[in-house]
Each structure stands twice: as structure tokens, then as C-alpha cells.
Amino acid sequence: MIKNGTPNVGRWTYCRGMSTYWVNTVSRDHVRRGVEGGFTQANHGKPWMLRKMERGDWIVFYSPKTDYPDGKPLQAFTALGQISDDGPYQAEMTPEFHPWRRNVAFETCVEVPIRPLIDRLDFIEDKSRWGYRFRFGVFTIGESDFSLLRHELTGR
């Protein structure tokens, strides 16, 4: 590990070669719970996509709605962080529900509406049907898209 030289003192950047950049599609209320608890879940608590993530990967959160399942439309990027553990683990939310999670070191962010960014994001191939990509929940993006989103969300 090396100490990150950015003004955000106390954050760590993990060196393992190239990072992968992820987008996780999650309602804002669930993103806020994750930020408060330092974790992310994906695909309604399923482990598959979380197993593909590695320590040091970056994850950006897109929130189509304010709340799940019946919130108001939001359509904004709502958080950003770095995977800070070595693998998924289960947590008990109720006796019947034990979702898989990954630990995330979140950065201080502002919400950023997606519409002004659509034409600048390469991962949105069909700009007229820009929401299609988010239907898959978790997916990877390129470094240039991540850099744009990080700058918009954090000012860095």
C-alpha cells in the first residue's frame, strides 16, 4: 500500500497494477446506507459481481431513484469509492436476508445529474437510449469515463 498524495488525507490507494472501474446502479437511500457503513452491495445482495472486484478497484454509484422500490426519479451519480478488502462477505440484515458486501473507502462527493454528462461519457454508446446500460446493475467503464466522473463528483 502507498499513502495517497491527494488532499483527502487518510485515504489509501492499493497498488496491484491496473485498477478496474465499476458502476453500481443503486437507489440513493441504499447508497447512503453504504456510505455510512463503508460497504457496497450489488444485484439485490448477490455475490457474483462483487467477486469480480479486487482491492483497489474504483466504484461509482448511479442512482436512478431516490428510494427503492418506489422513490422519485433522481438520475444522478451519488457516490464514489475504492474497494478496500480482499473479497466479498455476508452480513445479516434480517434472519432471512444475508446479502454479500464489499468494503469501500468512500470519498466526499456531491451528487451529479447524468443528463449534462451523457454526450461526454463513452460507455453510453446510444445517447438516445442512455438508460439502457444501467439496467444491468453493475458494469465496468473505461479510465477516461471514470476520471470525468471522479472530477465531477469530487472536484479532483
UniProtKB/TrEMBL annotation:
Coiled coil: none
Residues in EVE domain copies: 20-150
Name listed for the protein in its UniProt record: UPF0310 protein SAMN04489812_1310
InterPro entries tied to this protein: EVE_domain, PUA-like_sf, UPF0310
Pfam family for this entry, one: EVE
Superkingdom in the source lineage: Bacteria
Family stated for the protein in its record: Belongs to the UPF0310 family.
Lineage, highest ranks first: Bacteria, Bacillati, Actinomycetota, Actinomycetes, Propionibacteriales
